[in-house]
Design a protein that fits this description.
By secondary structure, the chain is mainly alpha-helical. Helices cover 67% and strands 0% of the residues. α1 runs parallel beside α3 and α2 runs parallel beside α6. The radius of gyration is 25 Å and the shape is extended. The chain starts with 13 loop residues before the first helix and ends with a helix.
Length: 235
């Protein structure tokens, strides 16, 4: 038996229709379709119309949780995978942002969603690197929630849907990333723990290497700064 969603007047079947649509989208996803973008549109419109909310029930669950449960249930019936707690929380959180976005009173969230689709489609035709469709909608929702006074401009939407350029890779950044993972293994912070002599030695050696790189970088900066100051005095 499915969980009931937000209250609605008698004879108002919109929430029942929404649940049916969500289940249908979950089944389509199980068959290999990309249903999340359409789910986002339905959720935003339903929130704007007051069909769903972020208000929690006596069990501490809101409509974001309940809707994702409906979606995941039909998806899992045909897909050979299970939904981890971490994955469920992340997906529920995204749906909650879309609901909060849909509830915004001053702007027209549905119009912003429609403009986002049109802008993204146009950029896609120009072969510009973009975020996945659903991620684009969630990013737009977050940006709009941070700017509640006026609807996002086309330029702001373009920034939301465009894929951020990858940060420039450097040896120091790469070694630092590896060191952080090793450090978590030693301390057990990440849930896994390995205090073997090999791992501890690797962590210590990498920490020493990073400290050495930092010292060289600082010395180089100081030398450049001193040279610049000397040139200024000579002038």
């Amino acid at each position: 038996m499915s969980q009931s969603l937000a209250h609605s007047p008698n004879n108002d079947h919109r929430r029942d229709d929404l649940v049916k649509e969500v289940r249908s989208l979950g089944a389509a996803a199980a068959a290999g379709g990309d249903s999340l973008p359409m789910l986002a549109h339905h959720v935003v419109r339903a929130a704007q119309e007051g069909i769903i909310t972020t208000v929690k029930d006596t069990d501490g669950k809101d409509d974001a949780h309940k809707l994702y449960a409906e979606y995941a249930a039909t998806q899992s019936k045909k897909a050979v995978h299970t939904h981890t707690d971490g994955g469920t929380k992340a997906n529920v959180s995204k749906l909650r942002k879309l609901i909060e976005f849909g509830e915004m009173p001053i702007i027209d969230p549905v119009d912003v969603m429609n403009r986002t689709k049109a802008i993204r489609d146009e950029l896609h035709d120009k072969e510009i690197k973009l975020r996945p469709v659903y991620a684009s909608y969630v990013e737009v929702a977050r940006e709009q929630l941070d700017n509640p006074g006026v609807a996002l401009s086309d330029e702001q939407i373009k920034e939301c849907v465009s894929k951020p350029e990858a940060a420039e890779k450097t040896l120091e950044k790469e070694l630092s990333s590896i060191h952080k993972r090793l450090e978590k293994l030693v301390t057990g912070e990440g849930g896994l723990k390995d205090q073997s002599s090999e791992i501890i030695q690797a962590e210590e050696m990498l920490r020493s290497r990073l400290a050495s790189m930092l010292t060289k970088s600082t010395d180089a900066f100081y030398a450049e700064f001193t040279a610049g100051a000397n040139q200024a005095e000579a002038a």
